[in-house]
């Protein structure tokens, strides 16, 4: 039986980064992984839907590859105790959680930016 | 001079995925990259701050590696033409420009955008989950 997990997620995880530091880190990725997907875009609707799920205090982003080797980010809501909102049990009332995908990758979709984080340009 | 970009982002990008498909794709990743960070999470506060930025229609997640080789996700707001909301490079000049073009009294002098990082990785942080997405099986109840 899984032991009870303490609530440790506050919703305040993550913070600001200097854009120039961020630019050097995204450049490191592009230099090391030439030709790979460099970013994914999720529209605000799915982000807001998952954040609105009962008990959701954060979003977790899973690195994933489909069976053709294409990169994806899979997103799920996160509860206070760090568990993902992927299934529900222990209640007579079913809760439907959404797990998200279908983000727009760059390169490979319309509107990919040319800027500090994507190619180092101002 | 940069040509004007057409609006192409609606805010509806992304959609649901079946849990068993997602589980098989995260498993593919773990098998291809053993020992690496498999997930990162951001609390709702920073996500909501970025979504609250004026004209923001979505969030872009950039893969990044710091100089020690550690994986990061860098996040920015995105506007309708797909451009990122990056903090102003020249706040004084921009402020002066905005001031000159200010449409109404009380409008902000320049826009403050946030670029986010410091997500919490798994493995490597407390309370990493054990479920179909992280280890390929449901947590025992």
List keywords for this structure.
heterodimer, A: 122 residues, alpha+beta, two-stranded antiparallel sheet, globular, B: 141 residues, 3 helices
Tell me what you see in this structure.
The complex is a heterodimer of chains A (122) and B (141). Chain A has 122 residues and is an alpha+beta fold. Chain A has a domain at 38-122. Chain A has two helices and six strands. Chain A has helices spanning 19-32, 44-51, and strands spanning 15-16, 39-43, 58-65, 71-78, 100-101, 104-106. Chain A has a two-stranded antiparallel sheet with strand order 2-6. Chain A is globular, with a radius of gyration of 17 Å. Chain B has 141 residues and is of the alpha+beta class. Chain B has one domain (19-119). Chain B is 23% helix and 21% strand. Chain B is built from three helices and seven strands. A three-stranded antiparallel β-sheet of chain B has the order 3-4-5, with helices on one face. Chain B has a two-stranded antiparallel sheet with strand order 2-7. In chain B, a hairpin with a 5-residue loop joins strand 3 and strand 4 (71-78). Chain B is globular. The N and C termini of chain B lie far apart (60 Å). The relative contact order of chain B is 0.20. Mean pLDDT of chain B is 83; it is low at 97-109.
């Amino acid at each position: 039986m899984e032991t009870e997990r303490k609530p440790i997620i506050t919703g305040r995880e993550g913070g600001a980064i200097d854009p120039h530091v961020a630019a050097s880190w995204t450049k490191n990725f592009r230099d090391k992984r030439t030709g790979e997907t460099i970013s994914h875009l999720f529209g605000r609707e799915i982000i807001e839907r998952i954040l609105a799920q009962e008990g959701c205090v954060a979003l977790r982003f899973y690195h994933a590859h489909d069976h053709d080797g294409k990169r994806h980010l899979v997103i799920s809501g996160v509860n206070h105790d760090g568990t993902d909102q992927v299934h529900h049990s222990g209640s007579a009332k079913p809760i439907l959680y959404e797990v998200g995908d279908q983000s727009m990758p760059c390169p490979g979709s319309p509107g990919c930016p040319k800027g500090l984080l994507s190619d180092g340009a101002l | 001079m940069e040509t004007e970009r057409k609006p192409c982002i609606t805010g509806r990008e992304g959609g649901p995925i079946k849990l068993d498909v997602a589980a098989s794709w995260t498993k593919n990743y773990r098998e291809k990259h053993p020992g690496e960070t498999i997930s990162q999470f951001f609390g709702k506060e920073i996500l909501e701050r970025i979504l609250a930025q004026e004209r923001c229609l979505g969030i872009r997640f950039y893969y990044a590696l710091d100089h020690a080789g550690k994986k990061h996700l860098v996040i920015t707001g995105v506007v309708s033409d797909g451009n990122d909301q990056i903090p102003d490079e020249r706040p004084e000049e921009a402020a002066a420009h905005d001031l000159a073009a200010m449409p109404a009294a009380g409008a902000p002098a320049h826009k403050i955008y946030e670029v986010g990082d410091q997500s919490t990785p798994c493995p490597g942080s407390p309370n990493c989950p054990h479920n179909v997405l992280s280890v390929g099986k449901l947590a025992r109840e």
